[in-house]
Amino acid sequence: MADAHQAAAGAGTVARKAPDGSAVPALRVENLRVRFRVPAGVLDAVDDVSFSLYQGETLGLVGESGSGKTVTSLAVLRLLESPPLQSRERVWS
Q: Where are the domains of the chain?
């Protein structure tokens, strides 16, 4: 899943600044992936989620029931238990 701003612009890279003029995001998540071990194997709960959030911006996670909104939020906040979790992420704040 591409960065929301990149997808909206339809471009590969979008340079933008926060309302305060800074070009560095307050939070950046790249390639977030969360997998859970289940009796039948492995469940991909979140796969390749990326986004940037700048000072003064608001981010809303929107999706159908079961699409991974809560798991994404918990992973970013590092509130998921391990095991049975496998995760791959790059989070900067």
A: 4-92
